Amino acid sequence: xxxLSSFLKNAHYHLCLLFIGAIAFAHQxxxxxxxxxxxxxxxxxxxxxxxxLPAVFVYQDLNFGFFEEVEIENAADPNQIYWxxxxxxxxxxxxxxxxxxxxxxxFFLLAHAYSYLSGGEMSGFSFPxxxxxxxxxxxxxxxxxxxLRKTLELSSVKPWLIVLTMLALAFSxxxxxxxxxxxxxxxxxxxxxxxxxxxxxxxxxxxxxxxHLLLAxxxxxxxxxxRPVNGLIVFSIPFLAGSLESLxxxxxxxxxxxxxxxxxxxxxxxxxxIQLMIYKVQTGKWLVYSYAEEGxxxxxxxxxxxxxxxxxxxxxxxxATFFIVLLVLxxxxxxxxxxxxxxxxxxxxxxxxxLGFFLLIVYVLSSWWMWFxxxxxxxxxxxxxxxxxxxxxxxxxxxxxxxxxxVLFIALILACIQLNMVQSKQYIAGAIHWVDMDxxxxxxxxxxx
Length: 449
Prior knowledge:
- The chain is an all-alpha fold and 449 residues long.
- It folds into two domains: 320 residues, no CATH class; 123 residues, no CATH class.
- Strands 1-2 form a two-stranded antiparallel sheet.
- Helix 6 runs parallel beside helix 9, helix 16 packs antiparallel against helix 17 and helix 17 runs antiparallel to helix 18.
């Protein structure tokens, strides 16, 4: 039920979200829809993610028999033809998972209905479909930021810091680029549903209401269907609990409610099994590994390159994440100087649980055979984990500390916002190469900032 008093009380958050949305929409329209660029917004991996929608709603063909006609004969740009088909025992499957298409489907159906009513082309690739694809990315972008704001409120973060965190998340990371340009990729959709998971779990530990666990279970199922490696988010639960005592009490309550326990296991398994059902229809087999020879090499992770390489390093192209991790480390050190035992223990627990989770994510993602994840702006594989990183930022800066310390980190984040906005434009213009960056090239481009 709409409450005017609550709306007015949170007007500054709504205005901030409106500002973020307006900037992103204007930029998205300028670079993706103001010319014939709209016909090229579905590109590379995004072609595979998106292909499920025309396969189901236009061609009724989950074996993608339309691939040659759409992708090769009628390609908007012959230089961007991308082979997302994987042949499994003579049967065609999609290399990519169906979760992204599931997220986009309501917007696709709106475009489908509009095309039908207006007598337009119902191919799934005309302008109305591409425009609504852009709107879906904007929706999930803003949804994720909104839910992070709600999570920060649950954590008693100061209002001014919540606004700063919303702006930092929106504009200091490559999440922004994947909202305004390559929005057929999976990352903005994963980001939003991870934010749902974060909000659901945090709400449970704060309010001890099990309905929030069901929400988190739903989100977990969808992020698994988008990219199975996203299941790593379950290891964030200690960090989201906030303290060891809260974690113990929450698990005790959770284990005592058998129906909730079973439901939170079955819901994500059922949603993730949609992919298995698709494989069954396509090949007659329940399990298909569509990535062929690609996989993880856990004995040789490229953790240093993943973080610091000029090619795609997280800390290089999204330096806000470096300063946030540094901030958490500093708060861990400061916690040893606290006099109050409970405060010290909570601060240590939050810092250690976040850093442990962060290192786990970096280890797993950097173990992928192509640690830089192909063509991208920055480390795109980390985008879905930004809700945790910026939650850690707000929680750390929310603690009592010297005014100059806070001013320093605020200034650093604002500088990162400026850098990211400039480099996003440089990447779109081609000044930052999609894969072949090195130290010399990076600093030559950096001077243009």
